[in-house]
Structure formats: structure tokens, C-alpha cells
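Dear colleague,

Thank you for sharing your sequence with our group. We've completed the structure prediction you requested, and as agreed, I am returning the results in plain text so they can be pasted directly into your records. Please verify that the sequence below matches your submission; if there's any discrepancy, let me know and we will rerun it promptly.
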Amino acid sequence: MDIYSKRAIQQIDETLKHCQTLRSNAEKKSPFLDGVTKAEILAKMSSTISHLSPDKSVYRSQTSDFIRIFHSNYSYALNGLMGILLALRHDFQAGHLKTFHEMVQADVFSNFLDMADYLLEEGYKDAAAVIIGGILEQHLRNLSLKNNMPTVNDNNKTLKTSTMNDALAGKLVYSKTDQKIILAWLGIRNDAAHGNYGNYEKKQVSLMLQGVRDFISRNPA
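Please find the predicted C-alpha cells below.
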């Protein structure tokens, strides 16, 4: 078993143990769980499922269904999420699931843009956006060096990518139109890096990937 599956199983076990401890401690005080404890247990379980399972997987959809349908019946919701966690654990144990980390480590990727393309097709739009943005940032840095322009400030701190973008366009290394498009791409990258996943769609990341490929080919560094 690979190390990432082992870590996933460990996280599931820790979640189950933590939730059982919360439940036991609460039941010592009262036979009926208080609302705060119920909410914490359900949130912990659903968070673990969401973190470890792929987008649009049956694990995520069933978790949403249980919470939506049985939100007023704690026992049903708890048992449902516990069953989903155990099923997820079994699939990791049996090697039926590929983690995001496995895909990143795989040797099949010839370069980072191909990696981003693959991840995007697999439904990992957020990871793809971060990778594409990182490639774009490095390319702008390389363009700056190629054109004898600074990449650090007077305090030897790395310049912001947006600052390099403005400077490169100002020196006519590329057009103002490219500058504006790059600014939009950097916005998607920043949203992805800061967890604002609802601010953009998969289609936008796909267009970003195509655009960055084209930009790099037109502006080699």
C-alpha cells in the first residue's frame, strides 16, 4: 500500500476515534446529545469525506444526501456518514482509490501543463488552477530575466507576479491585451490557492490552460 493511502486510512481512523470520544463524553453528561456535539461530529465526518474523496464521487453525493434528508434525525445521519467513512476506508485499503498525491507523483506526466490537463479531466479543477498559475508565474519571472528586468525588490524580496506583469507589458514585451488576460488568470490562481473554489468554474480553468500554453509559445523565455 502506498504512503498516501496509509495516511488517508490513518485520517479516517482518527476521525472515527475523535467522534466516538466526543459522543462518549457527551453521553456521560446526558443520554441525549446536545446540538453542538451533534453538529461537531457531523461536520468532522463530512469534512474528512470531502477531503479524501474525489469530486462528484458517490462518497460526497451520499454524504450530502444523508445530511439533507436526515438533518433532523441525528442517529440516521450519524450512522450514514459512519458507513460512508468505513466504505471509503475499505476502498483505500483495497487499493481501489487513487489519491491526488498519487497522480501528482506519477511518472506519466511529461510536464506540468500535461499534469494540469490530466487533473482537470479527472475533476481536480482547483489543483489544476494552482499548477497552471505556478507555471505562469515562473514564466513571467523568466521573461523578466530574459529582458534584464528585476524579479526582486530593493529588499531582495520576490516581486509580486502582478508587478512583473505590469512591468513586462509596460516594456512592450507583450501586449496590454495579454496583460489584462494574465491578470484574470492570476485571479483564478489566487482564488484556487486561497480556497475560494466557488469563484470560478472548470471551463474557466480549461480556457486558462489553453491560454497559458498559447502565451508561452508566443513569448518564449
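Summary note from our side: Residues 3-98 form one domain.

Kind regards,
the structure core
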